[in-house]
Amino acid sequence: MSEEGSVEVLKNSDILIMGGNEVITPYVLENIPQKLQFIFAGIQASTAFPGTWEEVRGRVFATGGGQEAVAQTTLQQLTFYNPLRLQGVMAKNKEISIHRDAILGNQTLLIVGAGTIGGRVMELAKGRFKEIVYAGGKGEKRELRESGFGYIADLREAFEIADAASIHSVLIPATEKSITIKQLAKMPRNGFLLNNARSGIIAPEDLKVVLYNRPDMQVIFDEFYVNGEEFRKTMNESTPNIYQKIIGFRNFCYTGHTANQGELTRREYSAGVM
Questions:
Q1: Most buried among 4, 31, 129, 176, by the most CB within 10 A?
Q2: pLDDT tens for residues 226-241?
Q3: Which among 163, 160, 134 is positioned nearest to 149, based on CA atoms?
């Protein structure tokens, strides 16, 4: 299809779901509505926007694989779902303008586990949030301090100031169930928690209590189990279990894992986004 034809098709659209080979040229981007959002089911979303990636990435929800895509998708999840909490955020500060950048610019983002992907999310999010802090891991990192990111040693204190939190800690025996109700309950009103396939870090019993007690919180788990097949098997058991109860909460959303490139996961993930 020609560039002019693409513009004609897209001018009345709200969402464009793209595959791995499509390209949006600068001409098309300039002549389509600013409101148009992109869901990109490919490994490297930035290649679809030659010369315009910095301009458009805030409107792209990438569902690809690899560290870069996971980092990009994390930021997009934080960005896309924040407007759901608009009324609560506005209640905190009547002067906030009603647009996404202003909302994010008034909020604090917490990254739990500033490793390769967590650190990349922080860099991508820099300049979008009022403040970006990190916790967990082996302590403060000099390069992150020099980049202007603050470290908080006490997880409870970290969650207490976090409007949004994204978990990227490595899942090992030492970190299993290390985030409990004591930390999660500290999140401010209208808190937003993104778990990034690290389900074992939060005790399911504690998560259930938090979901029940804090209906204002939005919680998204990108694969409740790292192995999606195990999750689906558990959900289909005839005997009621805690995971079936958790997924029944209206403030809980489950999506497929962004690093998995299987066709089933892509469909499942896109459905979760929608």
A1: 129
A2: 445 556 667 677 777 7
A3: 134
